[in-house]
Write a structure and sequence with these properties.
Elements lengths: L1 H11 L3 H12 L5 H6 L11 E2 L7 E2 L16 H35 L11 H10 L9 H17 L13 H10 L6 H11 L8 H31 L19 E6 L3 H10 L3 H9 L5 E6 H11 L3 E3 L22
Parallel strand pairs: 3-4, 4-5
Antiparallel strand pairs: 1-2
Helix pairs in contact: 4-6, 4-8, 4-9, 5-6, 5-9, 8-9, 10-12
Length: 337
């Protein structure tokens, strides 16, 4: 039986530190994403044959004739699958593009002198981004350029007509393909709203039309919010360079205060990096018996502070619960704080 459990743990991870924590969690009866997934029977309808977008349903198309059947609103199997996929894309686009919006607002606050703790650290990168946007840099201050860049970045979210600024950075041949097929994105938010509208029952029943909009939305995410987020992060916190660090749950230390940053936006984590080396905070930690403050990261934010500051990575999203397992084997806080 013990060998069987060890084999199951190996299937969950190849990370020895994570495997050790999973074994401890299992021995103490503490569930994790892995144990819940193994005990969960996937919904047989949720693979695309179920539609719950209105109160006339939920509708499920099952059986040997499911390709010929339709929902209450007349949606076919293809329409339902396209709607579900498009809405997932809209959700992902919202998450990643809002990341870019937050950074654009931070840059705007820096340019206006309305915030402390943030500054333009990579001026050459600011000038390059200004060039992409057609913003003049000669004879202008860093704050003036940053203000225009931030405002143009924010305009990309609510733009109603035309196309995203950064579309011009794509290869010309690819831009021509997008225009020919009609999937060039306008504003990031504009495309998300149209996706939600188009997938509403009674609006668009054509699966190909819905998928065209899904592509347009995803392009708005990648060439809009996400690319803007990357460039503005470099402007505010510095462009990354090659460095060495450490990874896995072994980076946690018993004799120090462990702080794990976990989230999506780097605006808070970058400030925490500075705070972790603050003499006053270090002195306070030592007064409580700790030897210092140990900072590490989980998931997306972890990558941000890793590539700019060399802060070690405790793990990916799947490690978010395992870091909670203390000596008593029970959770100490929510994995999503």
């Amino acid at each position: 039986m013990a060998e069987k459990k060890a084999s199951e743990v190996k299937k969950r991870t190849i990370d020895p530190a994570a495997a050790a924590v999973l074994k401890r969690a299992e021995a103490e009866g503490f569930d994790t994403m892995f144990s819940r997934a193994e005990g969960m029977r996937p919904c047989p309808m949720g693979d695309g044959s179920c539609c719950k977008l209105c109160m006339m349903g939920p509708c499920r198309l099952v059986g040997k004739d499911r390709e010929e059947r339709v929902g209450v609103c007349g949606a076919t199997m293809s329409t339902i699958a396209a709607r579900n996929l498009a809405r997932m894309i809209a959700g992902g686009t919202s998450a990643h593009s809002d990341h870019g919006r937050d950074l654009a607002l931070t840059l705007l606050a820096v340019a206006k002198g309305e915030t402390k703790g943030y500054e333009v650290k990579d001026i050459p990168k600011l000038h390059r981004v200004a060039g992409y946007m057609g913003i003049e840099v000669q004879g202008r201050t860093t704050q003036q350029i940053a203000l225009d860049v931030a405002q143009e970045a924010l305009a990309n979210f609510g733009r109603q007509e035309g196309e995203l600024t950064y579309i011009s950075r794509a290869p010309l041949k690819r831009q021509q393909v997008w225009k020919k097929t009609g999937v060039t994105p306008r504003g990031v938010d504009r495309e998300v709203v149209e996706t939600m509208h188009r997938t509403h029952p009674g609006t668009d029943q054509d699966a190909e039309h819905i998928l065209d909009q899904a592509i347009r939305t995803s392009l708005g995410s990648g060439w809009g919010g996400s690319m803007l987020a990357t460039d503005i992060t470099d402007i505010l916190f510095g462009t990354p360079w090659a460095l060495k660090s450490k990874a896995n749950l072994g980076v946690l230390k018993e004799d120090e205060v462990n702080i794990i940053v976990h989230g999506h936006d780097p605006t808070l984590s970058e400030v925490i990096v500075s705070a972790a080396s603050d003499p006053e905070l270090l002195k306070y930690a030592e007064s409580k018996g700790a030897k210092g403050i140990n900072l590490a990261g989980i998931c997306c934010t972890s990558n941000e502070i890793l590539m700019r500051n060399g802060i070690p990575v405790a793990g990916n999203f799947l490690r978010s619960e395992e870091r909670r397992v203390g000596k008593e084997g029970r959770p100490r806080w929510s994995p999503y704080h």
